[in-house]
Design a protein that fits this description.
about 475 residues; alpha/beta; OB fold (Dihydrolipoamide Acetyltransferase, E2P); Rossmann fold; five-stranded mixed beta barrel; about 45% helix
């Protein structure tokens, strides 16, 4: 391609080389970066477009000009405050040219809110210093009471935040008492007054939790809450304290020192006071649990009582069963005695026959017969003695079950006019004629009062 002479303008200098667009853009970029090293620029954020990659693209403008800016993800993630449209900021960056589109732009390395540079840096220095001293340690944070009786509010009496807090507390739980500790929240000496008020509230110890609150504002307006004296007063206070200073995007040193940080004063009130409806719902749930447990306990007791009642045998039935067993044993004793006697007699007959059949000396038979008779008599006597002992034991058991023997120990048996045994006071009324059987004799009586049955003592189950 033939070279062309290109006039340079008023200087009269002529370039004989023809540049490509890429070469021109690269040359301009190098010139800009050499001419303008890393510098600070202030302006208003406009046309903010966060990309899916995490990079931020926006325009920085003032009343007369604008410049494109890009802040890459590895830099914008270092900011501890959100960037929004219309914010006044001061950014530090490198002036350059985006070659692909030929756009003049600033690659942002750092950013801070405009007009807050010195204050914000002081805030960061104090925050870092107190954090190293352990003032913000999570282990030192005190838990908030779950059911406070009194809540203290530290703020200015004329602050709109106070009205928001009081209305929120009244809405959530009107039964909680509120004590307001007035203090200045802005201006000269406000930090010292806030610290003194926190100390007074802690010394009086008349609240369960404290709320330190103020409405939103600039960093200058909120600077009283960024003083070290306030942070130390919060940590020295014996009561748990909630910080509700500014809007959600505002952070102060008091927020980090407090036991709990709320994004707004209203949110601080919601953290401090449990909702009355939630407490009532919890109370209903606990009441239902108690009722269900009581019902289960009564049902289990009723089933156990039924089980024991089925196992409880009436003394009359037990006595009758023992008497029948005694009759069976007596019959078995008679049959055994008869059978044993018959067996011995049969054996005696067999021996007699054998004696007659075999010519054995008579004296030998007499001796053997005497021995057998003695053995039979001994066996019979022993058997009879054992049976008598068993019979005596059964008789003694029957005596223990004899109702009259129970009466000998001071008990009495009560019946109505029809001879029905009375076991429950509810079976009679005042004026009912009753008969009382004692160990010796009977008494007639008339009921003139009665009391409900006492609670039955536990009955040991038979194993």
């Amino acid at each position: 391609m033939p070279e062309k002479s290109i006039p340079s303008g008023s200087s009269g200098t002529v370039f004989n080389q023809i540049l490509s667009v890429s070469a021109l853009a690269r040359s301009v970029r190098d010139t800009l970066e050499r001419r303008f090293p890393l510098l600070w620029v202030s302006g208003e954020v406009s046309n903010l477009r966060p990309a899916a990659s995490g990079h931020w693209y926006f325009v920085l403008k003032d009343a007369h000009a604008q410049v494109r800016c890009v802040m890459f993800r590895n830099r914008n993630r270092l900011l501890d405050w959100p960037l929004r449209e219309g914010m006044q900021v001061e950014l530090q960056g490198l002036v350059t040219l985006y070659e692909a589109r030929g756009d003049f732009q600033i690659t942002v390395e750092n950013m801070r809110r405009a007009g807050q540079g010195a204050l914000y840096e002081a805030f960061l220095r104090l925050k870092d210093s107190l954090q190293r001293q352990g003032l913000f340690d999570a282990a030192a944070k005190r838990p908030l009471p779950s059911n406070p009786q009194r809540i203290g509010v530290i703020t200015s009496l004329g602050a709109a935040a106070l009205r928001d807090v009081l209305s929120t507390l009244a809405r959530r739980n009107p039964s909680i008492a509120v004590i307001v500790y007035p203090t200045a929240v802005q201006g000269s000496g406000a930090a010292q007054e806030i610290a003194r008020t926190i100390a007074v509230a802690g010394q009086r110890a008349e609240c369960d939790v404290l709320i330190l609150c103020r409405g939103g504002g600039s960093i200058e307006d909120l600077w009283s809450f960024n003083e070290e004296v306030v942070a130390r007063a919060i940590r020295d206070c014996p009561l748990p304290l909630i910080s509700g200073v500014g809007h959600e995007t505002d952070f102060t040193i008091a927020d980090f020192a407090a036991d709990q940080r709320a994004p707004t004063p209203t949110a601080a009130a919601e953290l401090a006071a449990p909702a009355r409806t939630a407490l009532l719902r919890q109370l209903r749930e606990l009441s239902n649990r108690v009722m269900r447990q009581q019902t289960r306990t009564l049902q289990d007791a009723a089933q156990r009582m039924d089980h024991l009642a089925r196992r409880l045998v009436h003394p009359g039935r037990k006595l009758n069963a023992q008497w029948q067993a005694l009759q069976v044993l007596q019959q078995r004793l008679r049959r055994a005695s008869t059978q044993s006697l018959q067996t011995r007699q049969w054996q005696l007959q067999q021996l007699s026959q054998r004696l007659r059949a075999r010519p054995v000396p008579m004296d030998e038979y007499q001796r053997r017969l005497s021995t057998l008779q003695h053995r039979m008599q001994t066996t019979h006597n022993n058997r009879m003695q054992l049976l008598r002992q068993r019979l005596d034991a059964l008789g003694e058991n029957l005596n223990h079950l004899d109702p009259l023997r129970v009466l000998d120990r001071g008990y009495a048996m009560v019946t109505d006019a029809h001879g029905v045994v009375l076991r429950d006071a509810s079976q009679v009324t005042v004026g009912t004629q009753i008969a009382i059987t004692l160990a010796n004799g009977e008494l007639g009586a008339e009921v003139n009062q009665f009391s409900p049955a006492k609670k039955a003592q536990p009955i040991n189950e038979e194993r």
